[in-house]
Amino acid sequence: MDQLNPLTQFFKAVEKDQRSSITPIGISAALLQFRTAAGYTNPIKVTGMKL
After folding, report:
1. By C-alpha distance, which of 16, 12, 8 is closest to 33?
2. With contact defined as beta carbons under 8 Å apart, do 29 and 18 qualify?
């Protein structure tokens, strides 16, 4: 359950911010999920993406 807490907090904050659009929300959510999967390391390193 603790693993989902940062993502849940993120989406609660986004709901209140009318300035956000789908692109930055999606990128931010993906980076947050990536950081969570990496064990909350800071900073995270992203080098590429396979589609």
Report:
1. 8
2. no
